[in-house]
Amino acid sequence: MPNRDLRRPAEARPQPLTGLAGFLDVPLTGGPSDPEATLTGVTHDSRAVRPGDLYAGLQGEHVHGAAFATQAAEAGAAALLTDPAGAALAAGSGLPALVVADPRGRLGEIAAWVYGRPAEHLTMYGVTGTNGKTTTAYLLDGGLRAGGGVTGMIGTVETRIGEEVVPSVRTTPEATDVQALLASMLERGVTDAVMEVSSHALALGRVDGTVYDVALFTNLSQDHLDFHPSMEDYFLTKADLFTPRRSRLGVIDVDDAYGRRLAKLASVPVLTVSATGDQDADWRAENVELGPDGSRFTVVGPDCHKAEARVRLAGPFNVSNALLAIVALTAGGVSLDDAVEGVGRTPGVPGRMERVDVGQPFEAVVDFAHTPDAVETLLRALRPVTSGALTIVLGAGGDRDRAKRPLMASAAARFADAVVLTSDNPRSEDPNTILDEMLAGIRAADAAPGAVLVEPDRVAAIALAVDRAAPGDTVVIAGKGHEQGQEFANGVKHPFDDRVELRAALARTMHAGPASPKQSTDARIVAPAPSTHTPTSETPNPGVPATGTSRAEETNQ
Ligand SMILES: CC(=O)N[C@H]1[C@@H](OP(=O)(O)OP(=O)(O)OC[C@H]2O[C@@H](n3ccc(=O)[nH]c3=O)[C@H](O)[C@@H]2O)O[C@H](CO)[C@@H](O)[C@@H]1O[C@H](C)C(=O)N[C@@H](C)C(=O)N[C@H](CCC(=O)O)C(=O)O
Ligand SMILES: Nc1ncnc2c1ncn2[C@@H]1O[C@H](COP(=O)(O)OP(=O)(O)OP(=O)(O)O)[C@@H](O)[C@H]1O
Ligand SMILES: N[C@H](CCC[C@H](N)C(=O)O)C(=O)O
Ligand SMILES: [Mg+2]
Q: Which residues bind ATP (predicted)?
C-alpha cells in the first residue's frame, strides 16, 4: 500500500496568493491579507482542506459551499474563492476572499494554475460517449503500456497512477481533484493519462484546465435526462469536447448516428472509425470474427495501414471500442503494431461482459449495461452465443434518469427470453416504484406469458435466474458490473458485488440441484397486459424503436 495520499502531489509548489488575485484580476477582500501568503493546493470540499489550500465555496444543488468556510479556515485554508452570495455567507470565517461571479466556471483554470498545469506535460486521452468509456479507457491503457508508456487512468472503476490504485468516487472527479491527480501522476513518472469524460464533467467544468491531445467519442443514446433537459443538450454538451479549448484531435465512431453528426460539427481535426463496414470512415474493422471470449479483426486505415487485431471482450460493440482505442493510440504517437498488441493483450474490464464459471452447464455473465441501448446491445451480442434461453436480471438506479426505466425494461423484454426485474441502487427512491416504472415499458407482444418476473431483492433475483437456467442457456446480470455496494435511502450503502452473488448462486445450484421453492414463489410473475402503444417523446437513438409506456398487469401466478 502507498504510504501517502496519491490524490495530491507530494511536492508542494507554493504559489503566491497575490499572484492568483492578479491572474483572476480581482482584489483580495475579507480577512487579513498577508502579502507573503502562498497556496499549495485547492479543494471544493471543506472536509478535504489541507493547510495552505484555496477553499472554493461553490453553490451546490443542496447547499452553498461557502457555508463551510469556517470549517475550511480551521483546517488551515489560506483563502476562499467564492461568488458574492458566498462572500456574505463566509463573512465570519476570517479568510481572505477572492470573489468572482462564476467560481465554478473559473475553478479548472485556477486548479491548473495552482498545480503547475500538469496536463501540458502529459499525453492526454479523454473518452466520452454514453456507453463504452470505461472499456475503451482500459483498452487505451493496454495499448499505451505496450508502447512503453507509464500510464495513469481516471474513470468509473478505478483511478490509477502507474501501478497504484486510488478508489474512484465518480467517473470524472471535480476540477480540483482532476488537476491534483494529474500533478501526482506527473510527479510519479506517468507519461500518458487516460480519462473518462462524463457529460456532467463537461457541463460542470470538471475538465476545464485540461486540453486532451486525443478526444474519443464512442456513441450517444438515452441516459442522464435527469440532468440534461433534452437529448440535444446532452449531445451538445459532449460535442464541446471536440472544440479547440478542450482537445486537439477527435476520434469518432461513425457507426453511431450522433457520431456522424459530431464528425461534421467538430471544430478540431477528426479521424472517423467504423467497425460495421456500413459507414465510410478513415479507419475500419474488416474480416471481423466474433467468438465467445472476444473477437479478431483486421484494422484498415489510410496510407495502406493494416494490422491484424484482437480484443478479449466478447460482442461486436467491443470491436468498436477496440478499433476506437487503436486509432486514438496511433493518433497519440503509438505505433500501430504496439497499439494492436497492447489492446489485444488487455485481459478484460471488471464487470463488463465478465463470465462467471463454477462449472455450471450454462453461461453466466455480469455486465454494466444500465441504459436502454446498452441492454439491447448486450442482449444482441449474447444471442448468437446462446443455444438455449437468454435470461436477464435487471434493475434501474434511483435518483437517476426516470425516463430510461421503461425503455430499459422494454429492451430486456424484446431481446431476452426471460426477464427478472429487480433493484439496482434504489438510493432515496422506493424500489417498488422504480419496478413499476420499468414494468410500464413492457408490452404484451414483447414477452411470452410467465417470461417477466419481479423480485425486488437482488440476491433472490440472481438466485431465481440461476435456478431456472438449463444447459445451453445464458444468464446475464446487468447494471452494476464492478460496483461494490448497493445504495439505499439516506446514503446507506450495503456491500454488494454481482459477481460474488452470482458465483454463490451458481455454487448452490451445483451442489443442491435446482430451484429452492421459496425463491420461486416469492417472486411476482408478471403478464404484461395488451396495451395501447404510447410512443415516448424522445426517440434518442434512431436505431431503437419507440416503446409503449402502459401499465402492466400482475397476475401473481
Ligand atoms: C449533479 C452533480 O454532479 N452534483 C455534484 C455536486 O453536488 P451538489 O451541487 O449537489 O453539491 P452540494 O451537496 O449542494 O454541496 C455544494 C458544495 O459544498 C461542498 N460541501 C458540502 C458539504 C460539506 O460538508 N462541505 C463542503 O465543502 C461540496 O463539496 C460542494 O462543492 O457537487 C458535489 C461535490 O463536488 C458532487 O459530489 C455532486 O455529484 C453527485 C454526488 C453525483 O452523484 N453526481 C453524479 C450524477 C455524476 O457526476 N455522474 C457523472 C456521470 C456518470 C457516468 O455516466 O459515467 C460522473 O462523472 O460520475
Ligand atoms: N460501444 C458500445 N456500444 C454500446 N454499448 C456498449 C459499448 N461499450 C460498452 N457497452 C455497454 O455499456 C456498458 C457499460 O460500458 P462501460 O462501462 O465501458 O461504459 P461507460 O461509458 O464507462 O459507462 P458509465 O458512464 O456508466 O461509466 C457495458 O457493460 C456494455 O453493456
Ligand atoms: N455512471 C452511472 C452509473 C449507473 C450505474 C447503475 N448501477 C445505477 O446506479 O444507476 C451513473 O451514476 O448514472
Ligand atoms: Mg465509465
A: 129-135
